[in-house]
Design goal:
- Helix 1 packs parallel to helix 11 (about 295-300) and helix 8 (about 125-135) runs antiparallel to helix 9 (about 165-175).
- The chain is globular.
- It is of the alpha+beta class.
- It folds into 3 domains: about 1-90, Rossmann fold; about 120-185, 2-Layer Sandwich (Dna Ligase, domain 1); about 190-425, ATP-grasp fold, B domain (D-amino Acid Aminotransferase, Chain A, domain 1).
- It has helices at about 10-20, 35-40, 50-60, 70-75, 75-85, 95-100, 100-110, 125-135, 165-175, 245-260, 295-300, 305-315, 390-400, 415-425, and strands at about 1-5, 25-30, 40-45, 65, 120-125, 140-145, 155, 180-185, 190-195, 200-205, 210, 215, 220, 225-230, 265-275, 280-285, 325-335, 345-350, 355-360, 365, 370-375, 380-385, 400-405.
- It binds adenosine monophosphate and glycine.
Length: about 425
């Protein structure tokens, strides 16, 4: 099995692969000690150097590949692997556009009248952009069309306050990229729905919620994600009927509409929704496991992961994949200043003996008991229990096993936070 990527998500993928009988050949830019320990062979390389990765996979006669990070999905690696006879449980360059082009995503939803779309317009012309913003009276969101590592989106009321400020940012994006997307701003509780698909059949995973803001209380800059939760019933405490069913059918509709246009999506689809008073609405669709939410679901996956990936590539995915009925809470250990001015330092890690608690290694290099952080997320501590809040407490109790100067959000999964979200849900 070829695994590309070296973050916390890829550590979780790597563990699920080895647990289910795969021999892993991994490629990543960092020297992730957990992935390296489990890999039969590891190559340290730029992850977007697809020629090099292709050569490695072909020379080792690998049977299957999975790609973790979005920037790699934006290269021809998946297509070239297929052409070389190696199936890939991640989408082609063209199918990955569901994530790599927000314009493609919004237009696909529109062409097929799929529920949950937002009012949106893409601009390629400064005058039209200015004219539109001066006449649009609702709060709006400015988005670059392509990948920005979760940091390019600006929301009125959060990141800017007046239309003029929003226009300034939109104009910058337009000048740099040649295009910019303006969307209506919606309000509600966000949730993530990941699903396996072979392009035809869709098997949903438990719902998850990701905490993108850097600081406790959901304030501060947006990050790649500071932590995440899943619940024992595979929904979330603040999700009201029929949000879950509608969200699942929207993802199936997206998969079906791509197939009908000859742009088969094989791999993991990860849709970000907002639960609103008019049902779930789509914030974004991604072409891979979420990080961190992918770690929550891979930790509780009951079925054989290797077999699921083979079935994704040969079109025989079952409609149901089994996950254990437990709640999980995950908190990311990050450098102090993460999200603005990170100060990476060394961490020492003592083994955790409680089987309900696990540490996944993310953007670090080093050994299992001592790592150097990068400017990004370092270690994911995840616990499972009957409830999200007890899992959160278990994480807190075990943070003392990690020593060094770091930052972590303590509020994720706490009873108070969950209660507030239930009260606030539309
Ligand atoms: P994204 O990078 O698209 O996931 O956006 C980052 C964050 O911006 C999301 O998690 C939302 O909290 C927020 N956001 C994105 N689009 C919208 C929208 N149309 N309305 C309100 N908030 C949004
Ligand atoms: N959870 C955020 C992301 O994976 O994009």
């Amino acid at each position: 099995m070829l695994l590309v990527g070296g973050g916390g998500r890829e550590d979780a993928i790597c563990r699920a692969l080895t647990r289910s009988g795969s021999e892993v050949f991994s490629v990543s830019k960092n020297q992730n000690p957990s992935i390296m320990r489990l890999s039969k062979e590891h190559v340290t390389s730029e992850e977007t150097d697809y020629e090099k990765i292709l050569k490695f996979a072909v020379e080792r006669h690998l049977d299957l590949a999975i790609i973790g990070p979005d920037p790699v999905l934006n290269t021809p690696l998946a297509d070239r692997l297929w052409q070389s006879g190696i199936p890939v449980a991640s989408p082609s360059l063209s199918a990955a556009r569901i994530e790599t082009s927000k314009e493609y995503m919004r237009n696909l939803l529109q062409r097929h009248s799929i529920r949950g779309n937002l009012f949106n317009r893409t601009f390629t012309n400064m005058e039209e952009l200015e004219k539109f913003i001066s006449s649009y009276s609702e709060p709006f969101v400015v988005k670059p069309i392509g990948l920005t590592g979760g940091k390019g989106v600006r929301v009125m009321g959060d990141h800017f306050s007046t239309p003029a400020e929003g226009l300034r940012y939109a104009a910058d994006v337009l000048r740099n990229d040649g295009r910019v997307l303006i969307e209506e701003k919606i309000r509600g509780e966000e949730f993530s729905l990941q699903a396996f698909t072979d392009g035809d059949h869709v098997a949903p995973m438990p719902l998850a919620q990701d905490y993108k803001r850097a600081y406790d209380g959901d304030i501060g800059p947006n990050t790649g994600g500071m932590g995440s939760i899943t619940d024992s019933d595979h929904s979330l405490p603040f999700i009201r009927s029929p949000t879950l069913e509608t969200a699942r059918s929207i993802v199936s509709d997206v998969v079906r509409s791509m197939k009908s246009e000859g742009n088969l999506f094989r791999g993991i689809m990860y849709a970000q929704f907002m639960q609103t008073s008019t049902g779930p609405r789509i914030i974004e669709i991604n072409a891979r496991f979420a990080d961190p939410e992918g770690i929550n679901v891979l930790t509780t996956l009951n079925d054989n992961f290797t077999e699921i990936l083979f079935r994704i590539t040969d079109g025989t995915l079952p409609q149901f994949v089994d996950f254990r009925d437990v709640a999980t809470t995950l908190k990311y250990i990050v450098p102090v200043g993460y999200g603005s001015k990170p100060e990476p330092e060394k961490l020492t890690i003592e083994e955790i003996r409680d089987p309900r608690v696990r540490i996944y290694y993310a953007s670090v290099s080093g050994t299992m008991d001592s790592v150097m952080m990068s400017s990004s997320r370092a270690l994911a501590v995840i616990a499972e229990s009957d409830t999200i809040s007890h899992a959160s407490e278990l994480v807190e109790q075990n943070l003392s096993h990690i020593r060094g100067r770091y930052y972590v959000r303590h509020d994720i999964g706490s009873e108070e936070m969950i209660r507030k979200k239930i009260m606030g849900a539309p």
